[in-house]
Amino acid sequence: MQISKPAAVLFDLDGTLIDTAPDFHFVINQQLRQHQRDEVSYDYLRRYVSNGARAMISAAFGPEEGEPGFDQLHQEMLNLYLEHICVKSAPFPGITELLNWFGQQGIHWGIVTNKPERFTTPLMQALNLTPASSSTICPDHVQEKKPHPESLYLACREIGVDPTDCIYVGDHRRDIEAGRRAGMTTVAVSYGYIDDGEDLNNWQSDHQVNHASEIKPLLEQLYKIPAS
């Protein structure tokens, strides 16, 4: 039987719901300047954001995790980021309108991210999105991070919905894998922080969008919701 709307729509955070790359770029270049190193371009750094702080440190400074000096650079970067966590970060174009539509339709939405809670909470408090997220799950809340589906299951339990009635939206292969393993309908977004050489067609998502504004008409089509 065709249900009239999704039970919930869950999002990855960085690169899917929120464009955090401008603040990461500022922080990394601030750190490079402090170490008398050449700055990196925005386009260069952007592709590493979804892989986290460690990937950005390696991309900007060279050493890999476990090599001398890496841990110091990593901790230094995290401290700088806490001071600059939401200066230029903002919802991707189309997200604010999408969330407003969720509110009108009575559709729950939430966040399932690999971004630690100590960064996610102040970021979301600063953005103050409305309607508010019905569940925000960080790696601190589970034993297994994405692509394991544990965090998606926890979000569904908090909201009180069945995972198979939910949508998961993400900009990384691990997001789509987690969503598939949880039995959710998956949507891959090409506007996010996509690795060089990555082909979204290989992720086996149920759907793809090139802009956040395409999510609403996709859901209207899937669930036969009258266009508004």
Which terms summarize this structure?
alpha/beta; 40% helix; 13% strand; six-stranded parallel sheet; two-stranded antiparallel sheet; 228 residues
SSE topology:
Blueprint: E1 8-11, E2 18-19, H1 21-34, H2 42-46, H3 53-61, H4 70-83, E3 90-91, H5 95-105, E4 108-112, H6 117-127, E5 135-137, H7 150-159, E6 166-170, H8 173-181, E7 185-189, E8 207-209, H9 215-223
Parallel strand pairs: 1-4, 1-6, 4-5, 6-7, 7-8
Antiparallel strand pairs: 2-3
Strand order of the largest sheet: 5-4-1-6-7-8
Q: What is the H level of CATH, i.e. the homologous superfamily of the largest domain? A: HAD superfamily/HAD-like
Helix content: 40-55%
CATH class of the largest domain: Alpha Beta
Q: Provide the gyration radius in Å.
A: 18 Å
Q: Mind describing the biggest β-sheet?
A: 6 strands, parallel
According to DSSP, the number of beta strands is 8
Q: Give the H and E element order.
A: EEHHHHEHEHEHEHEEH
Number of domains in the coordinates? 2
**Total count of helical runs of at least 4 residues:** 9
From the N-terminal CA to the C-terminal CA, the straight-line distance is 23 Å
Mean pLDDT: 96
Q: Which structural class is indicated by helix and strand composition? A: alpha/beta
Uncertain runs are none
Q: In CATH terms, what is the fold-level topology of the largest domain?
A: Rossmann fold
Strand content: 5-15%
What would CATH call the architecture of the largest domain?
3-Layer(aba) Sandwich
Bulk shape = elongated
